[in-house]
Specification:
single chain, 246 residues, mainly beta, Immunoglobulin-like, 3 domains, 4-stranded antiparallel beta sheet
């Protein structure tokens, strides 16, 4: 049997299955690929018991989806709000945004905020610290049927932290052209780190690209791809946050 599953209510907890094919016995993992050439991802699978490979054409798709998270309780009404922070992959022709709301009454959460597209957003700009309850909604849109944005993780900080993260790193000053550059750092904070990124660019470029750093204890690592290591030079910096604007 070949099936796909639909998230019914946007909270990630309620799912409904839809059968594509009943008689494809022993179907293995399915893949999405545009076999028909109509710009939509079709379903491809192999059945070892039947010794067959088959595909099913998709004739329409939804270019929009959203996930509404359950209401969170910060535990007290005298704790400061920190930042909303997330990591995502946003290919060309895709958009990922987040809406938030807070309240002192979980039965009346009020109106959603405007769309937030900056992946680091200070909630103090819109929330009252006396609001104890918090909720967010992730909205994803694509204009390209072959791809979509991907939310990797999302965090919200509250409480207090007067000191910023401490980053200990030995700068890389030389590297062979067209070779990858591993970057390592020790990052610590009294309240913990909720995110760390490595930003890099070719020297002279206007914009930086970033990659999420991998964590192992207090050690963080990431790699600058060889395409960014040219005779013109490479520029990079390490960014970390504990969720508070200090």
């Amino acid at each position: 049997m070949v099936c796909w599953f639909e998230n019914k209510d946007g909270d990630g907890l309620s799912w409904s299955g839809h059968t594509i094919e009943h008689s494809f016995t022993g179907a293995g993992p399915c893949s999405g690929i545009d076999v028909s050439g109509n710009g939509l991802l079709d379903t491809v699978s192999a059945a070892t018991e039947l010794g067959e490979i088959a595909w099913w054409q998709t004739v329409k798709y939804s270019n929009y989806g959203e996930l509404t998270y359950s209401i969170l309780d910060k535990g007290a009404d005298d704790l400061d709000w920190g930042a909303l922070f997330w990591n995502s992959v946003d290919p060309l022709q895709t958009t990922l945004s987040v809406q938030v709301r807070s309240s002192d009454n979980p039965d009346n959460m009020g109106n959603w905020s405007q769309d937030i597209t900056d992946s680091y957003f200070d909630l103090n700009d819109i929330f009252d610290d006396t609001d104890r309850y918090f909720q967010y909604k992730v909205k994803m849109l694509t204009e390209n049927v072959s791809t979509s944005p991907v939310l990797k993780d999302i965090s919200v900080a509250y409480g207090s932290d007067p000191s910023p993260p401490i980053i200990v790193h030995t700068p890389v000053t030389t590297a062979p052209i067209n070779s990858s550059i591993p970057i390592e750092a020790e990052i610590t904070d009294t309240q913990g780190i909720i995110g760390a990124r490595l930003y890099y660019r070719m020297a002279g470029d206007a914009n930086f690209t970033y990659v999420v750093m991998t964590k192992s204890g207090n050690d963080y690592s990431a790699t600058i791809p060889p395409d960014y290591v040219t005779e013109h030079g490479t520029e990079y910096y390490i960014w970390a946050t504990d969720g508070f604007p200090t």
